[in-house]
Amino acid sequence: MFTSLKKVARALRGPSVQEREMAYLSESIDRYDFEYRQRQVDQGLFRKSY
User: What mean pLDDT comes out for the span 18-35?
Assistant: First the structure.
């Protein structure tokens, strides 16, 4: 019973901070873009709470 509830909860939750950071870094088009994005992530671009 709880396993099906866990599956539903996992499907409905939004992406974690780490998943968003990895997706952002994966979209880089070259080494320089990747390094720029990595600096933004290191500065806390995705860790800010509004």
Answer: 94
